[in-house]
Amino acid sequence: MSDFRTLEGNVYASPQISIDDIADAKARGITLVINNRPDGEDAGQPTGAEIEAAARAAGLHYVEIPVTQAGFSEPQIRAMAEALASSAEGTLAYCRSGTRSTNLWALARAYRGAEPEHLLAVAAKAGYDLTGIRPMLDMLAQTKH
Length: 145
Description:
The protein is an alpha/beta fold. The protein has a single domain, classed as Protein-Tyrosine Phosphatase, Chain A (Alpha-Beta Complex), CATH 3.90.190.10. The chain is built from six helices and five strands, in the order ββαβαβαβααα. The protein has helices spanning 21-27, 48-57, 74-86, 99-111, 116-125, 134-143, and strands spanning 5-8, 11-14, 30-35, 61-64, 90-94. Strand 3 (30-35), helix 2 and strand 4 (61-64) form a beta-alpha-beta unit. Helix 4 runs antiparallel to helix 5 and helix 4 (99-111) packs parallel to helix 6. It starts with a strand and ends with a helix.
């Protein structure tokens, strides 16, 4: 069963999705799936290629921006900002629990000038805590790209 959590508007974060979740994503108006999870984190997780094939078969766009335990880099933040900007319709970002996807969404939004307080409130409403990346959010919001 899908656990798509609304971040803002038509942008959702989710724990690991299955191939069956693609139909639910399409039914919700999602047109872009962003994979923030590297392959091989857990035995039995669907590969990015499997999710990509299902998404493309359903007519959805697919982007991979994997985030490892090493943390977030500027190229990942920039790629997420570009992916979010490319989809005026619905976007679903997923990882193992949804936390990395939510963090990367918030960093990308701050990179484009969104206020950190707003991002923290939105994430909290969806069940995610951004306090660990607050200094990065503040720094990115001040530099506005």
